[in-house]
Amino acid sequence: MDRRTTLKWIFAASTAWPLGRAFAAGGEGAARTAQPYGADPELLDVYRPGDLWPLTFTPQQRELAKVLCDVIVPADAESPNASSVGVVDFIDEWISAPYAEQRRDRSTVLDGFVWLDAEASRRYTKTAIALDAGQLHAICDDICYLPKARSGFVDAAKFFARYRDLTAGGFYTTPDGRKDLRYIGNIPLTQFDGPPPEVLKKAGLA
């Protein structure tokens, strides 16, 4: 089973998804000065990343975020990869938010990016975004499963686990992601004829 299929199953089965409650250089001060609470937003307005608080990612970090998102949720025959449906913007918006959980995730993500660059340099004398697919996957394979991570990779595995959650949460709440899950909610119906007879029978109501 590939990683994408596993993520899809986990997300579909989850009843308490970590993202359900909401949505580096130079970004630290900006994140601290944003106001976390205040007047209710105008719910009919269209908000874009950066409208509510300053974003965090530098251009280089955005590129690494994109590459890593697409390792976690690559394109397949059913739907596109994570970066093409705005997941990088979602993660940048999430870690830039001035709330305690998001601030913790901000440190986790940015520290993880620093580790990836250091590990890419150690193994291949390259930056992480300069790695080819095989090299990047080799590093990710060492940190993709926390219970089996070697002692020197535990912190990096914790970063990868959180980044995977953010990526999957961002992807599977987009229209393409919901379609990939075969989720049929949030679709307006011109009429509703009630549950099918076989469903009523199975529920003991017919």
Distance between the termini: 39 Å
Q: Characterize the overall form.
A: globular
The value of Rg in angstroms is: 20 Å
Question: Unreliable stretches, pLDDT < 50, 5 or more residues?
Answer: 15-32
Oligomer: single chain
Largest sheet descriptor: none
* Proportion of residues in extended strands: under 5%
Q: What is the chain-wise order of helices and strands? A: HHHHHHHHH
Helix fraction bin: 40-55%
Structural class: mainly alpha
Number of strands: 0
- Domain count: 1
Number of helices: 9
Mean pLDDT, as a whole number?
A: 85
Describe the overall structure.
The protein is built from 9 helices and no strands. It has 206 residues and is an all-alpha fold. It has one domain (3-13, 45-202). The chain starts with a helix and ends with a helix.
In short:
By secondary structure, the protein is mainly α.
Question: Which SSEs are present, and which pair or pack?
Answer:
Elements: H1 3-13, H2 27-33, H3 59-72, H4 87-96, H5 100-124, H6 133-143, H7 154-171, H8 175-180, H9 197-202
Helix pairs in contact: 3-4, 4-7, 5-7
Features:
206 residues, mainly alpha, 9 helices, 52% helix
